[in-house]
Amino acid sequence: MNNSAAHRLSTRLGFLTAGITMAAWAPLVPYAKERLHIEAAQLGMLLLCLGVGSLLAMPVTGALTTRFGCRPVVLLSGALVCAVLPFLAIAPSPLLLGVTLFLFGATIGTLDVAINVQAVQVEKASGGALMSGFHGMFSVGGIAGAGGMAALLWAGMDTLMASVLVAAVAAAALAAAAPNLLPAAATQSGGKEDRRLFVVPRGAVAVIGLLCFACFMAEGAVLDWSALLLTTATGISADQGGLGYAAFAVAMTLGRFTGDRIVARFGRQRVLLAGGLCAAAGFFTAVAAPTPAVALLGFVLIGLGASNIVPILFTAAGNQHDMPAGLAVGAITTIGYAGILAGPALIGFIAHASSLQMAFAGLGCAMLLVAASSRSRVAA
Question: What pTM, to 2 d.p., does this model score?
Answer without folding.
Answer: 0.82
